[in-house]
Write a structure and sequence with these properties.
184 residues; mainly alpha; three-stranded antiparallel β-sheet; 6 helices; globular
């Protein structure tokens, strides 16, 4: 009985996840554009987690490169592009220095653009995967035809963006603390 429940529940769980994806994207955009207090400790925690994720992602891309041509190259290029976008995001963010705290509001258009690009790339990758699967290609050619390298690059853009952004937030917090007379 539990096995039958698992067999029936798994496709339902996948459908619920797919149905909730648009809501999750809207919430991600709303949270990504809110005014927040810049906190040094939070920037450090986020940065350490993102750097660890980027290292693991690059290792996974190197392994994936065995079956999918250019996966590592696309991932590294996506990470570098994301870092450039993160610097642009820092410049375009609105910074408000208060007496006791520093506040920032990320640029809405940049957050929306990154969200749309990543969403479009994921949907495009799913469509290519579906077509490659229907064509009945062998695994190696199916994996290459599905656009995995491009999808990994899109994910790396997000990682690079947030790495550069949190480095900048951390630096601005330290600078603000130094100017307000409190130690770093």
């Amino acid at each position: 009985m539990p096995l039958l429940f698992l067999i029936l529940a798994l496709p339902l769980l996948v459908l619920v996840f797919i149905a909730a994806l648009p809501l999750a994207l809207v919430q991600r955009y709303r949270m990504g554009t809110m005014r927040r207090q810049a906190r040094g400790w939070l920037a450090t925690i986020n940065l350490v987690g993102l750097l660890l994720s980027a290292m693991l992602f690059l290792v996974a891309a190197a392994v994936t490169n065995t079956w999918v041509p250019h996966a590592f190259l696309y991932t590294a290029a996506g990470l570098a592009s994301g870092c450039v976008l993160g610097i642009l995001g820092l410049v375009l963010s609105r910074w408000e220095a208060g007496r006791d705290a520093l506040y920032y509001t990320p640029n809405r258009w940049l957050v929306l653009g990154i969200t749309i690009v990543v969403t479009a790339r994921v949907l495009y990758g799913l469509a290519r995967t579906w077509r490659a699967w229907q064509a009945g290609l062998e695994y190696e050619s199916w994996a290459a035809a599905s656009g995995i390298a491009g999808s990994m690059a899109a994910g790396a853009v997000v990682l690079g963006y947030y790495i550069a952004y949190w480095i900048g937030v951390r630096r601005r917090v330290r600078h603000h603390r130094g100017r307000s007379g409190r130690g770093a």
